[in-house]
């Protein structure tokens, strides 16, 4: 019996507990003392016996183990009073707060997520054994990125009421620098040739701040795969890394990396064969196969072939095909036979399409963008297409999807789309200031996702230095289930051209319009519109370029009176978009060709055609190139009083500003107004009466304005390098864009005839530029930051004019609230 008691004491000691030895007896009562947070009923559920049961030492030890496994207690003591069993427990402390200090490489959010995965969170009990493991795991992470001197300690502060504060203190240190990288066993390719293809470097110059000269285990692993691919792509089928050594200096501040490799021989492809089930697509699969016999073995080409066949089968419902290339090496003639094994698996169908994260947008708004249908077979191209259409919505920031196989079903999946919405409009009311608009008062709402319906509503009242306007518009992009759109607008505007850097005139406009849109295919769309507009022109400062227009429409009996026009217009446009996102895209393109003309019964007859195109080319994560171009032309048609009609001056194209030519003041780029004044002399017979006489045109005086009048043709082009925005948290990366740009272009007057001024004196003729000369253009370069603020898109531009003309109003810094590139 004594031996049994000793054994029991040893067993219980392993759990940090004590128990008084007990003989076999029948339990009359069970007590648990020391409970504070844990309810008595919860504790009793972990005791594997009840009143009336017969106990011995073994069953008591089992009860202690069970209570420990509950995770609620630090210490347990069991005693016996008569036939009563008494458990005295000490509960584990509850975590009151978790804080971090000294962590830079790991964000608080990442650490909290890691702790949460180990059930270490505020309100839970503290398990010190888990804390110790976390310390070790975090230090291992730092070692993997080359910080061998890193240290992580958990500091526990005990608080009243059995609570603790948990504080992790980080000492990260610096990553070990790579002293040297050696490759041993390579004969075909030199160290320099191989190392220039990998990320890790050593002995980099001080100015190369992009160099990866700090050791990171994951980067090294990726570099080893890069070197392996380099050999495989050149026919070295049996290349392998025999060993890798990473040696640390005693001070743990530097490492030496050595790769021991075996290159092997080059192999040519002797034959390409297909085995397995090709699901009835044998002819097509053989046709899309790029692998050919007689060519040098290429690992990248083999991988591409496998992916191409898998994606092709995925278009027809074979969601999980297995495509494997089996090499059969012939060492005698150094050739390899490639057998491509294909197992399409079962055709998989879509059970349900689900959406998560759409807190504002209604499900049906997202569902109407789906190209993949429920009940149909799963097509990877249709699912990717659905993602692309969702991403192009201006109120979506990110879109991801996941296919989940239904439990117990090998041919049914759910497709779960997870979206992150972004501000799709703005409500404004207040006072603003802009570098061009000056003081402005505004109130309005613009919403691309009105009440979560996906419809666009805009209502605004604005007043600024050169314009007063009121506008309301509404567009339903899915007026019918076939994606036929319907929209309309009513507007009123008072425009002071002189305050907008243009030659002076006032234009009071009001009108109404309606438009329809029709999809042609996944990318192309047709739009048609009808409109009515009334223009009232006053305070018109006449100049040479509009003299003909003014003479056509002015009242000879009231030459100082205003001009009034009523026009009815029809418009048509075709647009194409393959952009990967609706806002701040990084890949794809967008083109739009539009045409507008007034109807013959309008007071003025004219037409305008405009082409806009943008191309985005991704080059690296966070980096992409944007090229854009705008071409526009307008003119009058028909005659009035026997004279050809011309484009009304208020319809002229204009350039300059944040959305056309940055670095130039808004609307200032283009032809200047020309004023021509005859020279007069006072007659000598009667000087008192002021009799005067005109001299010939060669004595006329010419003056060109400092302000632009716009013109009927425009050409703009731009090139931008979009770069990651520095000092911006990852959560804001999709709402801020930074780019380096070059803008170029001009506005031309194709009706301008420089020959009309050849009768001027030479010094006066020299004052006139040929505004029809297409060789004249402006250019600028600079930095642009675009921010999707709660008030709307804001553009900040720092630009330097590279090519300008005399009198141009250049601006180094401009900001604007409006559209983004």
From TrEMBL:
PROSITE patterns: POTRA. Keywords: Cell outer membrane, Membrane, Repeat, Signal, Transmembrane, Transmembrane beta strand. Residues 25-92, 93-173, 176-264, 267-345, 348-422 form the POTRA domain. Its main location: membrane. InterPro entries: Bac_surfAg_D15, BamA/TamA_POTRA, D15-like, OM_assembly_BamA, POTRA. Residues 1-21 form the signal peptide. It is found in: Cell outer membrane; Membrane. The keyword Repeat applies. Pfam families: Omp85 (PF01103), POTRA (PF07244). Part of the Bam complex. PANTHER family: OUTER MEMBRANE PROTEIN ASSEMBLY FACTOR BAMA, SORTING AND ASSEMBLY MACHINERY SAMM50 PROTEIN FAMILY MEMBER. Part of the outer membrane protein assembly complex, which is involved in assembly and insertion of beta-barrel proteins into the outer membrane. Belongs to the BamA family. HAMAP family: OM_assembly_BamA. This is Outer membrane protein assembly factor BamA. It comes from Thalassotalea profundi.
């Amino acid at each position: 019996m004594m031996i049994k008691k000793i054994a029991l004491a040893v067993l219980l000691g392993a759990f940090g507990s004590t128990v008084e030895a007990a003989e076999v007896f029948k339990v009359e009562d069970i007590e648990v003392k020391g409970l504070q947070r844990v309810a008595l009923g919860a504790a009793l559920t972990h005791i594997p016996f009840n009143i009336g049961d017969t106990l011995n030492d073994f069953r008591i030890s089992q009860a202690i183990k069970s209570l420990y496994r509950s995770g609620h207690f630090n210490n347990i003591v069991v005693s016996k009073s008569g036939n009563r069993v008494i458990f005295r427990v000490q509960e584990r402390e509850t975590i009151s707060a978790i804080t971090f200090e000294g962590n830079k490489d790991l964000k608080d959010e990442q650490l909290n997520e890691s702790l949460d995965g180990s059930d270490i969170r505020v309100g839970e009990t503290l398990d010190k054994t888990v804390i110790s493991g976390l310390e070790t795991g975090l230090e291992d992470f730092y070692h993997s990125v080359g910080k061998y001197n890193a240290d992580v300690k958990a500091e526990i502060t005990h608080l009243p009421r059995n609570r603790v504060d948990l504080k992790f203190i980080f000492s990260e240190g610096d990553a070990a620098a790579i002293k040297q990288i050696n490759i041993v066993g390579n004969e075909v390719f030199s160290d320099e040739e191989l190392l220039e293809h990998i990320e890790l470097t050593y002995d980099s110059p001080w100015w190369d701040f992009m160099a990866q000269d700090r050791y990171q285990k994951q980067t090294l692993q990726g570099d080893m795969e890069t070197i392996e691919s380099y050999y495989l792509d050149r026919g070295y089928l049996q290349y392998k890394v025999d060993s890798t050594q990473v040696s640390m200096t005693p001070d743990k501040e530097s490492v030496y990396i050595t790769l021991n490799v075996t290159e092997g021989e080059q192999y040519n492809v002797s034959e390409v064969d297909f085995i397995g089930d090709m699901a009835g697509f044998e002819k097509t699969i053989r046709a899309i196969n790029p692998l050919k016999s007689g060519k040098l073995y290429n690992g990248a080409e083999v991988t591409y072939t496998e992916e191409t066949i898998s994606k092709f089968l995925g278009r027809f419902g074979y969601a999980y095909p297995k495509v494997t290339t089996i090499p059969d090496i012939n060492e005698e003639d150094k050739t390899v036979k490639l057998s491509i094994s294909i197992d399409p698996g079962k055709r998989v169908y879509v059970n349900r399409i689900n959406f998560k994260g759409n807190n504002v947008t209604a499900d049906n708004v997202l569902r109407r963008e789906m190209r993949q249908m429920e009940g149909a077979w799963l097509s990877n191209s249709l699912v990717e297409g659905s993602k692309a259409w969702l991403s192009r919505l201006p109120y979506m920031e990110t879109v991801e999807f996941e296919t989940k196989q239904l439990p117990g079903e090998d041919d049914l999946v759910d497709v779960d789309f997870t979206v992150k919405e972004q501000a799709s409009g703005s409500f404004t009311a207040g006072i603003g200031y802009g570098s061009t608009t000056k003081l402005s008062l505004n109130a309005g709402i613009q919403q691309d996702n009105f009440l979560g319906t996906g419809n666009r509503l805009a209502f605004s009242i604005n007043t600024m230095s050169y314009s007063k306007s009121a506008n309301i518009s509404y567009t339903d992009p899915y007026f019918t289930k076939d994606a036929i759109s319907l929209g309309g607008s009513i507007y009123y505007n008072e425009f002071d051209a002189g305050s907008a850097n243009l030659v002076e005139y006032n234009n009071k406009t009001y009108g109404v319009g309606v438009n329809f849109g029709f999809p042609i295919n996944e990318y192309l769309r047709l739009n048609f519109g009808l409109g009515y507009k009334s223009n009232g022109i006053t305070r018109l400062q006449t100049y040479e370029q509009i003299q003909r227009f003014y003479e056509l429409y002015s009242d000879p009996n009231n030459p100082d009176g205003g001009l009034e026009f009523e026009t009815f217009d029809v418009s048509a446009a075709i647009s194409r978009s393959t952009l990967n996102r609706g806002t701040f895209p990084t890949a794809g393109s967008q083109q739009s060709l539009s045409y507008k003309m007034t109807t013959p019964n309008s007071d003025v007859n004219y037409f305008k055609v405009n082409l806009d195109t943008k191309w985005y080319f991704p080059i690296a994560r966070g980096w992409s190139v944007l090229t854009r171009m705008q071409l526009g032309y307008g003119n009058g048609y028909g005659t009035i009083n026997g004279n050809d009609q011309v484009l009304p001056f208020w319809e002229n194209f204009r350039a300059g500003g944040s959305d056309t030519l940055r670095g130039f003041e808004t609307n200032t780029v283009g032809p200047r107004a020309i004023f021509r004044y005859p020279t007069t002399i006072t007659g000598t017979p009667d000087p008192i009466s002021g009799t005067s006489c005109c001299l010939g045109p060669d004595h006329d005086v010419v003056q060109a304005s400092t302000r632009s009048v716009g013109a009927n043709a425009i050409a703009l082009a731009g090139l931008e390098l979009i770069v990651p925005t520095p000092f911006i948290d990852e959560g804001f990366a999709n709402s801020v864009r930074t780019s380096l740009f070059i803008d170029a272009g001009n506005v031309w007057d194709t009706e301008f005839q420089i020959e009309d001024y050849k009768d001027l004196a030479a010094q006066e003729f020299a004052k006139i530029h040929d505004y029809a000369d297409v060789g004249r253009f402006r250019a600028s370069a600079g930095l642009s930051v675009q921010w999707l603020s709660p008030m709307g898109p804001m553009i900040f531009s720092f630009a330097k004019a590279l090519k300008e003309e005399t009198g141009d109003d250049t601006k180094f810094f401009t900001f604007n609230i409006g559209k983004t590139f």
